[in-house]
Specification:
Elements: E1 2-6, H1 11-23, E2 27-32, E3 46-49, H2 55-65, E4 69-72, H3 79-84, H4 86-107, E5 110-116, H5 138-151, E6 157-162, E7 165-166, H6 177-186, E8 191-194, E9 202-203, H7 204-217, E10 221-224, H8 233-243, E11 251-254, H9 274-280, H10 287-298
Parallel strand pairs: 1-2, 1-4, 2-3, 4-5, 5-6, 6-10, 7-9, 8-11
């Protein structure tokens, strides 16, 4: 299949690119707003700059390649920034999806859109694909609005909802809970980690595979693509410390009220992944296995 990825410089974008190149059977077009930061020779794929908030660029690039599948990973995902910079958040998370839908309608492309557990209020998690959304942050509002655009469109589409994605990007531009806990404890830093939120941490490689399985099957509808464990961030930190055999005396349990954050966080989310396992053959790592994958990439 001919696959076009938005946000190819991001963590998930990089993992999907690597997965497709390793498989070696699909035609790949990577796109990002900035210059290409992928660590792979462009002889194996094509790269085009595309700002998803610029409709003329979206039209030009999608029309040029007429892909079978568009995997849309680009978004504004900083929850607090979305709260304070609402205009930019809406442009990136909603308007961009509108432009992609219109372009995919013309080229008859299948659109796979990435969404989030933050469309839920976190009062009754974990959630399946049928659960009722009720976002409590502007980020959640924007991601739900994008889902509704797809639901009301006439294109073939899928929505992949995910939770707390962790992994290592080749340029290490972003940290994650595993790397943060490991470095903090190695440096003897005092850290507080919340114990009153529940999430399903998702290894970036697993999310990439989930996206690929959806794309390959052109499986329509909503799929929860996350890790299989339901953990508090504190439990994730304890598992990280145990794996790397680190002293936890500088780490303490805290509740969410300890931290002043601009945007509200849903307390208990987590996603039920039975549908993805059954329909797609999705098989994610456990959190402990995920830490081992990260360790192998650090060497």
């Amino acid at each position: 299949m001919k696959v076009l990825i938005t946000g190819s410089n991001g963590l998930l974008g990089q993992k999907i690119v690597k997965l497709i190149l390793d498989k070696g059977q699909d035609e790949l077009i990577a796109t990002a707003r900035g210059t290409n930061r992928l660590p792979y020779p462009e002889s194996n794929y094509r790269f085009d700059q595309m700002d998803i908030t610029d409709q003329s660029q979206v039209d030009k690039v999608i029309d040029k390649y007429s892909p079978d599948v568009v995997i849309h990973t680009a978004a504004m995902t900083n929850v607090d920034q979305c709260e304070t910079d609402r205009e930019d958040c809406w442009k990136q998370n909603v308007d961009a999806v509108e432009y992609l839908i219109a372009a995919c309608e013309r080229t008859k492309s299948f659109l796979l859109h990435l969404s989030t557990d933050f469309i839920f209020d976190g009062e009754d998690g974990p959630y399946d694909e049928e659960a009722e959304a009720n976002p409590i942050s502007y980020y959640g509002d924007s991601k739900l609005a994008a889902e509704k655009l797809l639901l009301n469109s006439s294109i073939r589409y899928a929505i992949a909802r995910t939770v707390v994605v962790y992994g290592i990007a080749h340029d290490m531009s972003r940290t994650n809970i595993v790397l943060w806990v490991k470095k903090s404890l190695e440096d003897g830093k005092a850290i507080k980690v919340v114990d009153d939120q529940l999430r399903s941490p998702t290894l970036a490689e697993d999310l990439a595979m989930g996206c690929y399985l959806i794309a390959e099957k052109r499986a329509e509808g909503i799929f929860n693509i996350s890790g299989k464990d339901l953990l508090t961030p504190y439990e994730m930190a304890l598992k990280t410390a145990a794996y790397f055999n680190l002293d936890t005396s500088t780490m303490e349990k805290a509740d969410s009220s300890t931290f002043t954050q601009t945007a509200k966080r849903p307390p208990k989310t987590g996603l039920i992944i039975e549908k993805a396992i059954k329909v797609l053959g999705y098989s994610p790592h456990s959190f402990d296995e995920g830490i081992a994958v990260l360790q192998s990439q650090m060497q």
